[in-house]
Backbone:
């Protein structure tokens, strides 16, 4: 006895649905990306953080939450300067040292984002702002003759636990 064609179509639909479900379980989209169209880049903000536009800031600032200390934040600026990256990084350190109280330079190291498309300098400092101690990590790099500074800031007592969060965000940074 021959099966009706409708049974074959039904079975193909079942197998197709099961196959697509299995595929979707293994190919879930990644975390949401924050796209800065004007800057031509995107990145994954930390989960649960909020992106906020501030007057005078070209790109959105993302902020987290904290129960007992100021909220951590990440902001990005670009700068059309022709200085070599090392000189520009020194300028950032000098500028930050004059803006903050009790400024302490910790270190400066090269970094590379895993995709290999971005190489730069990671600057770590501590300073007092509004009576509180903060640790700042600035990732300074260049793309298409434009300098970028990704500044990650956290209360000094929270800095160690925030470091992997900041590293993940920077690793997710992509230009179009």
Residues:
């Amino acid at each position: 006895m021959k099966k009706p064609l409708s049974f074959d179509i039904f079975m193909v639909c079942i197998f197709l649905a099961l196959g697509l479900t299995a595929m979707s379980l293994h190919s879930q989209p990644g975390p949401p990306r924050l796209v800065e169209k004007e800057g031509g880049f995107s990145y994954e903000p930390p989960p649960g953080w909020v992106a906020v536009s501030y007057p005078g800031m070209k790109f959105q600032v993302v902020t987290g939450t904290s129960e007992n200390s100021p909220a951590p934040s990440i902001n990005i600026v670009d700068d059309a300067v022709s200085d070599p990256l090392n000189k520009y990084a020194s300028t950032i350190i000098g500028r930050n040292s004059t803006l903050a109280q009790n400024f302490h330079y910790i270190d400066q190291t090269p970094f590379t984002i895993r995709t290999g498309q971005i190489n730069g300098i990671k600057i770590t400092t501590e300073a007092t702002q509004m009576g509180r101690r903060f640790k700042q990590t600035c990732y300074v790099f260049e793309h298409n003759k434009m300098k970028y500074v990704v500044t990650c800031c956290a209360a000094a007592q929270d800095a160690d636990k925030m470091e992997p969060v900041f590293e993940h965000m920077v690793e997710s940074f992509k230009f179009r």
Q: What stands out?
A: The chain has a mean pLDDT of 82.
